[in-house]
């Protein structure tokens, strides 16, 4: 049975390359045409492959529907939280998780600092989109025309002397963030708060969320916080791997 399942599943990557006829499928699997036909018929019955009028087979619409449904039901917060908690245990600082939804960047998870001085951010609260490190990562991943459209609609409050002043500067910073793969907010929203952030990517490489480490100057300096960037990026990569299915969940290997 396991060999049959393995052969059937091996057909899907072949058809992902493009339509193939019965002979090509049989050759790829190293089986007789009758065996390949039996497997194809089973996959066809479940909507995973489709037989075209030219007698070639391609991936079926049901497969794409299942993939879309699976992606929609993935909870990045549930996957990310254990990683964020471990990062918090390691460094002691506030850790956030944020997503971009309906033209806002929202915090969807937070692990509090173990230090007495804490941030007033709240889960479900929009971030200061023109200065927040997580916002820069999420907007930097948008296609260029979307980035420009968003940037030109935003207001640019002067929270501090380090706040982003206008759309031109914002777009320039987003391009830099896009190239380097990480972002910072060094006193752009609050003079006394610094933040480093890293992206969480899905299977297609697009940024689906961003996580950050934040701390006040009275706890660590900006330079000291920047030394945590490699740890933050490793954490984001671990979340990305689990979210996209590139790495197994612990305990399921």
Automatic annotation (TrEMBL):
Alphabetized SUPFAM superfamilies for the sequence: GAF domain-like, Winged helix' DNA-binding domain
Biological process, per Gene Ontology: glycerol metabolic process; negative regulation of DNA-templated transcription
Entry protein name: Glycerol operon regulatory protein
Swiss-Prot/TrEMBL keywords: Activator, DNA-binding, Glycerol metabolism, Transcription, Transcription regulation
Matches recorded under Pfam families: HTH_IclR, IclR_C
GO-annotated molecular function: DNA binding; DNA-binding transcription factor activity
PANTHER family xrefs: HELIX-TURN-HELIX TRANSCRIPTIONAL REGULATOR, ICLR FAMILY, HTH-TYPE TRANSCRIPTIONAL REPRESSOR ALLR
HTH iclR-type domain boundaries: 2-61
């Amino acid at each position: 049975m396991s060999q049959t399942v393995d052969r059937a599943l091996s057909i899907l990557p072949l058809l992902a390359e493009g339509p193939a006829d019965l002979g090509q499928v049989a050759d790829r699997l190293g089986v007789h045409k009758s065996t390949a036909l039996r497997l194809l018929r089973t996959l066809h019955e479940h909507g995973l492959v489709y037989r075209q009028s030219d007698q070639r087979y391609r991936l079926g619409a049901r497969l794409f529907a299942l993939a879309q449904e699976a992606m929609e039901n993935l909870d990045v917060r549930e996957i990310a939280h254990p990683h964020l908690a471990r990062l918090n245990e390691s460094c002691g600082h506030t850790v956030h998780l944020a997503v971009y939804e309906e033209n806002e960047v929202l915090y969807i998870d937070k692990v509090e600092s173990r230090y007495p001085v804490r941030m007033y951010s709240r889960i479900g609260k929009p971030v200061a989109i023109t200065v927040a490190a997580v916002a820069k990562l999420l907007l930097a991943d948008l296609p260029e025309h979307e980035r420009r459209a968003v940037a030109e609609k935003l207001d640019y409050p002067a929270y501090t002397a380090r706040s982003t002043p206008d759309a031109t500067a914002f777009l320039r910073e987003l391009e830099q963030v896009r190239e380097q793969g990480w972002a910072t907010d060094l006193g752009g929203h609050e003079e006394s708060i610094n933040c480093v952030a890293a992206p969480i990517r899905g299977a297609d490489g697009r940024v689906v969320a961003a996580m950050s480490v934040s701390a006040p100057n009275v706890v660590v300096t900006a330079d000291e916080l920047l030394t945590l960037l490699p740890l933050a990026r490793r954490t984001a990569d671990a979340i990305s791997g689990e979210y996209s299915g590139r790495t197994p969940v612990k305990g399921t290997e």
